[in-house]
Amino acid sequence: MSTGGSPRADSASETVLSPRALNRALLARQFLLVREKRTAIETIEHLVGMQAQVPSNPYLGLWARLDDFQPEEVSRLIERRELVRPTLMRTTIHLVSARDCLALRPLMQPLMVRTLSSTAWGKNIADAASLAGAVSYLVPVVQVPPMPAGRGGEYGSVLVDGFLGGMWRITRERGGARLVVESGGSWSQEDRKAAGDEGARMLACLAADAGSHDVQIVTRE
Fold first, then answer.
1. Mind listing the pLDDT tens digit for each residue in 56-66?
2. pTM of the entire structure?
3. In the chain, what are the domains?
4. How far apart are CA 181 and CA 178, in angstroms?
5. Cβ neighbours of residue 8 closer than 8 Å, sequence gap 6 or more
6. Worst-scoring range by mean pLDDT, 133-142, 151-160, 183-192?
């Protein structure tokens, strides 16, 4: 309350975050500005799960966020059932900790039931595929079988200065792994070098079994 003089607005109310500041705040919350020195399970719980429709996606997401990430850490946690893959947010498969799964799945269950009842296959369970889908919606199962190859995951995003700047894909042939990075515009030489260096590190982590690694950067027309 003002007791005299000219009225003044609260200084906090005058602060307007720019798009860049909002961008940086979001990236920081997601651990995408600087790689963190955290465990995989700590990071997954901080994010409240990671999208895992494609089973390999959490490995890539953790590699992008953690310093010295080792894929075997996640594999061991899954084998010990400390990390699980249930149907959760948006009725899609997420990788979460077992303790978070116990808390989240009951909250999601009403949505699961409504979604199932609104689908054609949910109303008429006539074959094994529709039965399997219904079970994943109605029963809190974990370790859902991987989705068939080709359903998402072929491409990934490239951030340049925190904003979408291109796409990437990994192909394998003759025992080697190739990362093709498609730039979405005019990249500086510094951007191209950074993308190439980061791509080489990604292949070393996610395609360690390949006999050779190759990174190509092309400009998308």
1. 889 989 999 99
2. 0.76
3. 21-139 (no CATH), 155-219 (3.30.70)
4. 10
5. 2
6. 151-160
